[in-house]
Write a structure and sequence with these properties.
- The structure holds two protein chains of two kinds.
- Helices cover 51% and strands 12% of the residues of chain A.
- By secondary structure, chain A is α/β, with parallel strands linked by helices.
- Chain A has two domains: 119 residues, Glutathione S-transferase Yfyf (Class Pi), Chain A, domain 2 (Up-down Bundle), CATH 1.20.1050; 106 residues, Rossmann fold.
- In chain A, strands 2-1-3-4 form a four-stranded parallel sheet, with helices on both faces.
- In chain A, β7, α12 and β8 form a beta-alpha-beta unit.
- Chain A is globular, with a radius of gyration of 18 Å.
- The two termini of chain A are 25 Å apart.
- Chain B is an alpha/beta fold.
- Chain B folds into two domains: 288 residues, NagB/RpiA/CoA transferase-like (Rossmann fold, 3-Layer(aba) Sandwich); 75 residues, no CATH class.
- Helices cover 50% and strands 11% of the residues of chain B.
- In chain B, the strands form three sheets. In chain B, strands 1-10-7-4-2-3 form a six-stranded parallel sheet, with helices on both faces. In chain B, strands 8-5-6-9 form a four-stranded mixed sheet.
- Classes of the chains: A alpha/beta, B alpha/beta.
- The interface between A and B is large, with 66 and 66 residues.
């Protein structure tokens, strides 16, 4: 299948390894990646902070750029949630029936990475090898907006060599919340402290999630405290195989 | 119009109010423990129902329907209640409601009233108004009594004194009830409260309540509670006055069948409340002989007029959103400026009061969605929060506000991929003074809120798109 990659603005800028792993994984599974260079941002930060007018042109851009895609793959559940939960309403507010139709038409072809693998491709075993102790954080949007349930965990359980350990309070927010972490810095820090306690209790080497944004937050706190944990987007765990170098991830 | 929601008009911003609370380890421990226990109980009794999601859908539909036809159902309630011997009063704001109630109490020649736990009198500041009029209000819910005697603020919609431990309760009772020999043992404390309250139940002639539900077809009022103090207040005085927000209406008595399954499970993790009181007007020789209902607007019609936020009025005040909220869990309800706390408080207070006050509240959420998931009437709180944030930006923010400028600049960058790529390159250059060994440990201005407790990985040498472009060139041997 020809998969159009929406890498998301923050993965593009801050975490290119997430994108490289997605490319590596999907190509290994026999798919062709298309990366439209015109893409920028879905508008989530603006929309959720109250700058809804500023998010409108970003929605239009996304629909124009990906309108013809066979499938759009997004390695971020919160950006998928932005598109799925808010684009239809935003389009309706524009009084532009063509735009509203284009959004409705595009939405069923927009997938979060693990949705694409499990729901669209019917895969749970992607042939990955990752010999490390890993704990999985179920990000808020992945659970309560995309309703991914155990989809990411089903993929992780099939990874060879993985030592997957449950994260206590797996479904509790880490305190990131986009601009919340800045605007409500102290409350966010208190939420983060609880999350770090839970991560450290797992004695995992790696914390993973389907959202690099949450990981940036959790790992940012852990790094400050010199904790012996590193972060990896789920694609970075699903991409490497046994034939790769031991530290390919 | 004097729209009042507790003291939130003059309360500090959420950020400011949260700070001392975050530093109170005991408070955070108490709240964390209490909400964990309630959530576990809730999960159990919800799991044993076979039709929980259908109940939520039904409740949401009933409430949405009622709000669309609120004028009709309010008049129907007034007619039915009056026919059953009750008196209905209409109050457009807090002051009017307080004035009506104070005049009624004076009319019945009482200088004391006993009260059931009610959020609405907290909203209007009724106790202060009564005291001002020379009338002594006595709270009879144990939690509310503790707060009243200790001059404390409520930290939870359902368990208002959740943040006060029994040692603190002991100290308050010893001093305020003049019983220096009282210990901190729960049995002794509850017995002391019981003795104190019994005297009031037997002697005070006027009772004041809120309402959980008003059934329009029969004119009935429903209150659920756990301690039996409510039943005392509803049955023993000669006069009963109920203050209810206009959104408490449900079309029919039958609809209670839906709500009385949802409310106790969501609020206290019980299948049924220990005390369920429903009364209709007055009955000669049985219970209060004079019954008054005060229907309160106080900003509710303003919420009703906002199509996107109207669902706020569906709330049945169960507190489930507080218990599950990771923000509430850190601060308790004391940071929200009124008795309406947690996610629901964050949307109710700024709307009732007007956005010029309480404009930090819509931002007191990470939008994690846990509140929406547990809400028994399916209020999409994150959606309303985002809507209110939009209103704060449009109605309150100056175009020169640093945040507004930053957001507009970012939007301009994102509308062109060339500008975006230029910004990526610029960021790499601009970060140099802040980077040490691949990490940013301190940033200026607002961004310093991030680096106070978190490191930030420095921007990598190559963005994803630069890598992709380079890879394409290498593979295809030509330019994009």
């Amino acid at each position: 299948m020809r998969v159009s990659l929406f890498i998301t603005c923050y993965n593009d800028t801050l975490f290119p390894n997430t994108g490289k792993a997605v490319v590596c994984l999907l190509e290994r599974l026999g798919h062709t990646i298309d990366f439209p260079f015109e893409q920028t941002c879905c508008g989530q930060m603006h929309y959720n902070t109250g700058y809804q007018q500023e998010a409108m042109p970003l929605m239009r851009r996304f629909v124009e750029i990906f309108g013809d895609a066979e499938a759009v793959c997004i390695p971020s559940s919160s950006c998928v949630a932005m598109i799925r939960d808010h684009y239809p309403k935003m389009a309706a507010e524009q009084n532009d029936p063509g735009l509203a139709r284009a959004v409705d038409d595009l939405l069923p072809r927009v997938y979060e990475l693990t949705e694409l693998l499990v729901h669209r491709f019917g895969l749970e075993d992607v042939g990955a090898y990752f010999p490390h102790r890993v704990t999985y954080h179920a990000s808020c949007h992945s659970q309560r907006s995309l309703h991914l349930g155990d989809v990411p965990l089903r993929l992780l359980r099939h990874v060879r060599g993985i030592d997957l350990v449950d994260l206590p309070n797996i479904d509790r927010c880490c305190g990131f919340g986009g601009t919340f972490a800045i605007k409500m810095g102290d409350v966010s820090a208190a939420m983060l402290a609880d999350k770090m306690k839970d991560v450290e209790a797992t004695q995992a080497e790696v914390i993973t999630a389907v959202d690099t944004s949450c990981l940036m937050h959790i790992f940012g706190g852990l790094h400050r405290q010199h904790a012996q944990v590193r972060m990896a987007h789920i694609a970075e765990i699903l991409a490497p195989t046994e034939s790769d170098a031991p530290e390919a991830a | 119009m004097t729209i009042r929601v507790g003291e939130s008009a003059t309360a500090p911003s959420f950020q400011k109010a949260a700070l001392p609370l975050l530093q109170d380890a005991q408070l955070r421990h108490n709240i964390g423990h209490a909400t964990d226990v309630i959530q576990r109980k809730r999960a159990q009794v919800v799991a044993e129902t076979t039709d929980w999601q259908n109940l939520r859908t039904a409740a949401s539909a009933i409430k949405a329907h009622t709000l669309r036809h609120l004028d009709h159902y309010l008049l129907q309630f007034e007619k039915a209640c009056t026919a059953a011997g009750g008196h209905v009063h209409w109050a457009s704001d807090a002051d009017e409601a307080n004035q009506i109630i104070a005049e009624l109490v004076r009319h019945y020649r009482s200088d004391e009233v006993i009260k059931i736990k009610t959020m609405t009198t907290d909203e209007t500041g009724l106790n202060e108004a009564l005291e001002h009029a020379g009338i002594q209000p006595v709270e009879t819910d144990l939690g509310e009594l503790i707060l009243q005697l200790g001059h404390e603020k409520p930290s939870h919609i359902v368990g208002p004194s959740l943040h006060i431990n029994r040692q603190q309760v002991g100290a308050i009772f010893r001093e305020q009830m003049h019983q220096p020999a009282l210990s901190d043992e729960p049995e002794e404390l509850t017995n002391a409260a019981r003795r104190y309250l019994r005297e009031k139940f037997l002697s005070v002639k006027v009772g004041i309540s809120g309402a959980n539900f008003l059934a329009a077809d029969t004119g009935s009022v429903c209150i659920v509670e756990s301690e039996g103090n409510g039943r005392m207040c509803l049955t023993m005085p000669d006069v009963l006055i109920s203050l209810a927000g206009i959104e408490k209406i449900i079309p029919t008595f039958r609809d209670l069948g839906v709500f009385l399954q949802l409310l106790p499970r969501s609020a206290t993790g019980e299948r049924m409340n220990p005390y369920n009181s429903v009364w209709t007007g007055v009955r000669p020789g049985d219970g209060p002989q004079h019954f008054h209902v005060v229907l309160l607007d106080n900003g509710r019609t303003r919420i009703l007029a906002d199509h996107e936020a109207r669902q706020t009025l569906q709330c049945i005040r169960c507190g489930a959103c507080l218990n599950t909220c990771p923000v509430y869990r850190q601060t308790s309800g004391l940071a929200y400026g009124s008795g309406y706390s947690g996610p629901i408080g964050a949307i109710v207070t700024p709307q009732l009061l007007g956005l010029q006050h309480a404009q930090s509240l819509p931002y007191a959420s990470s939008l994690c969605g846990a509140c929406y998931e547990v809400c028994p009437v399916k209020i999409n709180i994150p959606e309303v929060l985002i809507h209110l944030r939009g209103r704060v930006v449009r109605e309150q923010k100056s175009a020169l506000d640093p945040e507004a400028l930053a957001m507009k600049t970012a939007a301009a960058i994102f509308t062109s991929h060339r500008r975006f790529e230029a910004a990526q390159r610029l960021g790499r250059l601009g970060q140099v003074p802040f980077v040490s060994k691949g990490w940013v440990r301190s940033l200026p201005g607002m961004l310093g809120n991030w680096t106070r407790v978190r490191d930030l990985r420095a921007l990598p040498k190559q963005t994803f798109r630069e890598w992709w472009r380079e890879r394409g060139k290498a593979e295809r041997g030509h330019n994009d």
